[in-house]
Amino acid sequence: MERIPILKMGDSLLVSIQVDMHDRLAMTLQDDLTAKIVATHAKGVLIDISSLEVVDSFIGRMLANIAAMARVLDARTVVVGMRPAVAITLVELGLSLPGVRTALNVEQGMKLIVPHEEGADARREA
Amino acid sequence: MHVERHDTVPIAVDDDIVRVRQRVRDWAVSLGFSLVDQTKLVTAASELARNTLIYGRGGTLTLETVVNERKRGLRLTFEDRGPGIADLTLALRDGYTTGNGLGLGLSGARRLAQDFTIDSKVGEGTRVVIARWN
Lengths: 126, 134
Description:
- The structure holds two protein chains of two kinds.
- Chain A is α/β, with parallel strands linked by helices.
- Chain A has helices at about 25-40, 55-70, 85-95, 105-115, 115-125; strands at about 5-10, 10-15, 45-50, 75-80, 100-105.
- Chain A has five helices and five strands; from the N terminus they run ββαβαβαβαα.
- Chain A has a five-stranded mixed beta sheet.
- In chain A, α1 packs parallel to α2.
- Chain A is globular and about 35 Å long.
- Chain A starts with 5 loop residues before the first strand and ends with a helix.
- In chain B, a hairpin with a 4-residue loop joins β2 (about 60-65) and β3.
- Chain B contains four helices and five strands; from the N terminus they run βααββααββ.
- By secondary structure, chain B is α+β, with helices and mostly antiparallel strands.
- In chain B, strands 1-2-3-5-4 form a five-stranded antiparallel beta sheet, with helices on one face.
- The chains are: A alpha/beta, B alpha+beta.
- The interface of A and B includes residues 85 and 95 of A.
């Protein structure tokens, strides 16, 4: 069965969605990620959607569900790389992704889910 | 106004929603729509195709390139022979759903298209027509 790969890096899980997902695939990703957070004790989840040309209400709901489930499991989620045309369309569709943290790219997204890195930077600056 | 080109695609299984998105994208690109307009039309089509599949129990999408004196547009007609919608006003309200979705499909698609019409008869089916002009 077709699956979106989930990579583990440190305490974080990384997902890059590279295909136009059908609804079942999106549901599978949601289930896989939730199981993997528990199995790996991950503290952060980063989802890269820079390849997605469309985010409709189904995929939007999947992103919101993942963020909510991760929060309940003590992990932070950040969605990165949303295309400008997708952002414009999502807002007009009526979907503002409440509860979902976003960042412009992977680098900035990692800073949001790995807070101890910020602490390390602060120590260096001090 | 006349129809320059038309095609019909089935909406019967989950994967057909992806195919609808791809087909609408291809047609929107060939009509020279901007990236934002393409994205709005494809997103609206995705919502309506899912409604046709889930609530209408399957149906068809007809794509048409329409031309009037001054401009060209893409018209999309989603038809099913499902149970129909008893209260259209309620169905078009943001956040209203009889399924387990967000209730943004119809209302969102209406905002994303320039033209939007819906006809539904209980026991006979539903037809939604949207269009965007270039």
